[in-house]
Design a protein that fits this description.
Oligomer: single chain
Largest sheet: 8 strands, mixed
Number of strands: 30
Structural class: alpha/beta
Radius of gyration: 51 Å
Number of domains: 4
Strand order of the largest sheet: 13-12-14-15-16-19-20-21
Strand content: 15-25%
CATH topology of the largest domain: Rhopdopsin 7-helix transmembrane proteins
Helix content: 25-40%
Low-confidence stretches: 1-32, 50-69, 307-315
Number of helices: 21
CATH superfamily of the largest domain: Rhodopsin 7-helix transmembrane proteins
CATH class of the largest domain: Mainly Alpha
Shape: rod-shaped
Length: about 900
Amino acid sequence: MAKSVSLLVLLLHMAGKVRSLKCTGDNPLQIPHQWYQPGEILIGEITNLIGYMAYHVSFTRHPSEDFINIPVLNTKFYQHILAFVFAVEEINRNPNILPNVTLGFHIYDNYSDRRWSYQTILDLLFHYGVFSPNFNCGISKNVVGIIGALNSETSSYMADILTLYKIPQISYDGSFQSTVIDSAQFPSFYRMVPNEALQYVGIVQLLVHFRWKWVGFIMHDDEPGEHFLQRLEPMLSRNGICVAFTERSPRKLHLDSIDDVMKFTDSDTAAFLESTATVVVVYGETVTFMWLAKTLWMQARMSSTRNVEDPDRTSEGKVWVTTSQVDFAVINFQLFFDIRIFHGALSFAIHSNAILGFQRFLQIQKPSWNNENGFIKDFWEQVFDCEVPDSMNSKETCTGEEKLDSFPATIFEMSMTGHSYSIYNAVYAIAHSLHTMFSHRAKHTAVEEGDRQAFLTVKPWQLHPFLQRISFNNSAGDEIMFNDRGELVAGFDVTNLVTFPNYSYIRVKVGKLDAQTPPGKELTIHEDRIEWHRELRQKPPFSLCNDKCYPGYSKEMKEGEKFCCYDCAPCPQGKMSNQEDMDYCIICQEGHYPNKVQDECIPKILIFLSFADTLSIILVFMAVFFSLTTAVVLAIFIKYKDTPIVKANNRSLTYVLLVSLFLCFLCSLLFIRQPNTVTCLLRQTIFGIVFTTAVSSVLAKTIIVVLAFMASKPGNLFRKWVGKRLAYSIVISCSSVQMVLCALWSCVSPPFPDLDMHSLNAEIIMQCNEGSVSLFYCVLGYMGFLAIVCFTVAFLARKLPDSFNEAKFITFSMLVFCSVWLSFLPTYLSTKGKDMVVVEIFSILASSAGLLGCIFWPKCYILIVRPEMNNREHLIRK
């Protein structure tokens, strides 16, 4: 097939030279800058070299004189043009892509202006210089695709016209939310970038990864900026992140006069610099960065004039997080801006790889002063601060031997940027689509010699089926393909800005954002590769509204403040927090309790009253002592059983009482040991029965005393009731009631071993659960009832005249008994753990000892010390 000359057209955002007419009150006529290469198949690109800054600076010498116009260029964007040209030349040299076809191109600048965007597109599609839509006049332009633009606004202007003619448009910018460019509304629109929603996820996951909760936002003051904030705020709130401030950069910085330049230079610094937020997310476009750079530069300048030792202190503690649309670029009068303010910035960047030969292609660039390249003259003059040879100005003449790699990256970057990489891939996408279409035609169509020109004729709409299904690997090995929404199937790189004293920088890849991973795992970050800002005190830094709440404290919200701003309150008793910034303190799990500083749970100690405790030893000693004493008293009474004082008040009741008291002292030992099923069942029931027997014996003694006095009167009817049978009946009947209660208690809900986890903070109480509390208090209440009856009877009989009367001793003993048990109840109910058991044991010993001492001590005194008083004559009073 004969080789034919074809043309590829590129439409870029790039400010070119501004020509002005004599001032007549109208706007000067502006002619779009272009770079034209003739051919039959065209790919167009629209660029903006100005980069959304002022499009030109006009200096007026006199109202009647001509304007002197100086183009203000964003020199970094010139790489977009060179990447486009490099891709076209590389394809033309490759015999495997479009053999016998040479691509050409058009490159236009639209000045970021809506009118020139529409004008440029129409001029690209139809005859240059003649505004005749739908008419092809003169040289035919076979436009097959348009690449551009650098922002969604201009892309939408282009799509308004290109969609009508079904011409493929491939955008390489990062502002591409679906609300601006809708795939259904613009079916000819493709994006050489992933969907922006992936960046939202990445930003949130990055903030969550480093636990940054207090974050500022700087965005462009336009619809995409508002859309970004509206979409992101709910995601931030769900992840506990607050917006510290929102600062909006102006949409355009007009520098149409010296006054505008001075205002731009001397404007006040933004209030956001006073914020305590360490992390600032910057969303927008390159002009947003330029505005931010100006603001920080002015703050540093003001700090320097105030004799501040560190004029760069405004960036101290700041971590800048930028989106893929933002490029670290400055214009010519910001040449010496200290980019080190942004050292350590983290950026979501369009994925890129090094393209073999591209850096060499940049290094060998030589200026050409012909009219084909309409950008090189203005670019060369501004970046090297010289004049072309035909200029009449006094500046140094450009030699053409200047090197692009002699400038910092803020002016011109030698490594391929993400946007340039997208342009490179966009050119290849169209070329591969053309190649596939021609291959398809060759396979299904027989071509005659005279039909070759028709064979190469391409209608733009014919390219869509091939472009939609395109899939190829570029020279860097990355796969290029579109999804069903016309977006590139790819992710983002996470880069770290590393700056140098010569105002230059490099971007180091420290992670990636991949949409193909499971939800929640899209972001991969390598902290060890990140180089943070040198002024940061903590690395990685904190970004909080206030200091963290450390373990042992919980957050306490401040009224009227955002939820990220709070006070720290110590955990209440019994609760703890073992992590930073906990919303509330928690209770430890069963068997654990908080330590003193309340930042961790430790196992509780199992406690019970054991024989090793000091109190237990004392109580055991007392129990043994009193039980032995009771045994001795019993032995004394048995020895002197035939003496009047022993026989005076029913020896059998005395023996029963002493045996009962002896068992009462010993049953207290059942309470001192680790509780088990047997001891829990026995200790309360045995204590209740034995103690009831003792009190019943005392009651029988009291009743016998009263009946004996009454029977001593002649002819009294109670004489026949006095005797052993009555005494035994009282003891047995009263004790039987208690036995029935204890049996019922053991059958219905008996006591059992139990663990009390909650009564004490640091210990687990191993105790006997009483089972049926009502029956437990019935047993105690019955004993109390008997004691009160006994006390009442004894109190009424205390003044009987006979010397053998025990009523007064019984009255005193029952007074001690009732006092002890009345004191026992509140004390027992107010204590926990071992103390409760100690109280019960002490009450048993004290009440038993009161009975023993008050009733038997006077008699033992007479039996042992005053035996002469142990006779009938002494005992009988007149």
